[in-house]
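Predict the 3D structure for this chain.
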Amino acid sequence: MTSINAIRFNEHQGAIATDEEMTIQSEVKLPVSDKVRNVIPDSIIEQYGLVASVSTTGSAPFGVQLTDTVRRRIRDDHDSFILRTGKPPAISKSVEDVAELAFEVAAEMRKDYIDEVLLTRYGFSRKDYIKGFYSGKDGRVDIKDKTVLESANQMIVGKSEYTRHFSRNHGFIAGWSSVDNFRMYYFSLATLLLEPIGTFFQASGSGLDSADIVFGEYARHLPLDQRRGDIDPVDGLFTLIKALNMASRMSFGCGGYPNITIFDGKQKENSKKRKEIADHRAKFASEIVYAAEEQLITRSLASECIEDTLVKDKPFHESEQKILSKTKNLRALSRLLRGYKRSDGISLADRRRK
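Done. Predicted structure below.
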């Protein structure tokens, strides 16, 4: 259960925002999940300016293994090129290359998992199933039992209770490179699909329906030329956080601190082309947007503080003091952010006294 969201501002800039909550058997929730991770080694970022992250929903261990494997393969491929030629590649990989590698690794992981289930239950693999036999202790064993054949087929296509959950893993790849600029891709193991994200936004996970309402309403007011790649980054970040806030409030399995990753290919320093914000600044940004939604601060003030905190990297306590001094109702704001229901800061007992 999760909410992962991506947005493209223009050909060089975009962002991902995820929550951090995971659920165990739909009964226990824990704010411990790492749903968006960098897959480019630091040395390659410094050399080429290539930045990319993979964000996943489904199994938390799947996301960790996927991103670790992709990062290792990118590093190994780079090192092997140097060993063969005596010099590093002249140009970096593209974001499309990274997306294809991530999908390839994810598909391999799915195949390996299905093989483990088949071998554990029946003693044969996917390849054996296709051949129609496997080698047992006493030689060749034909796979002829109709019940076994049907059960194995359901496992392979991801419809069995033993493999269905693994096929639900899906996610995004987003990043910037000097080859193809900022790009976003979506992949799914249920349909074995990898494709470029066709709109300027994408939401997924259990928070999909809630987040899509926010994105859809925002898109409805944008002309086509802006949707194609002329979205103000601060305005886009505000909407991205608003969508995540909505999912965290309304959708099962979403919550905790936001994790916000910003891509900016316009930065001159390669190390600054990707920035991850998952500390108190991210929580503060979600509160800024919530306060603006409830009209306790102005939208212009909220945008200013979002820019200062997330884009310009100013200490968030500066924006915090600014908001506290300019809010329309400090008591109402304080109570709202502490979880009270909205009442303009006046309790029912106080209303009755009046």
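The chain has a mean pLDDT of 93.
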